[in-house]
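Feature request, filed as a ticket because there's no other form

It would be nice if the structure record came with a short human-readable summary line next to the tokens. Right now we just get the raw output. Example of a typical job, pasted below so the devs can see what we mean:
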Amino acid sequence: MTEYPNFSAMLTRLLDHRGVGVPEPADHAGVTAAEIRGVLAGETPGEGLLRRLATGLGLHAADLFILAGREVPDDLAPLDAAATAWTAYTVMDAVHLPAAGRSELLQFIRALPQEKRRSPFVPKESGPVADGPGGSLVRMFWYRNLSRSGLAHAMAVVTPSYLSAPTYTMIGEGRAELTPRLVTDSATLLGIEARELSALTGVLLPEPPGPPAPEAVDAAAVLWELRRLSAPQAEHVAELAKSMRGDSPVEYRINAPGW
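Raw output as currently delivered:
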């Protein structure tokens, strides 16, 4: 992919939102202020600088590569695209668990052994996306192993956004609007502070959103942690999450947090 043309503006907005100058993220990233100023002036950052910038900014490196319009290196990508089949279901079951159950599930996922990568990662349902905030947003979810239908289902259960899978495709292609509501709700599932995602996408929020519910915070953590699992591991976790819900008469509630 070519460099996303507004990456420098994106970082400028983020730093302005945080109210910090160049020296602070430079110190955290272990780079010189001149290197960051160069990126802010429009210079194309190399892979090493992007990785260090992610550390300095407190962002996931995979997300920063996507926001910069770059290919995500394999070591930053999900382990197994086949695990996509179970990702959304695990997240949707997790958000229905009590706090202790969500904590137990997260601990179980994190304790699973790291398996070796068998092949380069290719998103299960990749396709053309526009150079812009909508395309970047959809790619961030692809690199969390969510298919189009999985994204639609997970968003509907974890947040108030209840959209169809084709609508997310249109947003990624730049043919549908990336609304403030969708930015806020996407931030919840991505585990990014909503006003920061607003700065990164350039989509202004009419008012500062409240903090996400604890259930949604944990759902975002589960979604991120699932990235490192193989398909058999992900299937096992999905079965566990389903069993932890017991004999619930309701399969999935829409906008479940706090119900």
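Something like this underneath would help us a lot:
Residues 7-76 form a domain with the 434 Repressor (Amino-terminal Domain) fold (CATH 1.10.260.40).
Residues 107 and 222 are 10 Å apart (CA to CA).
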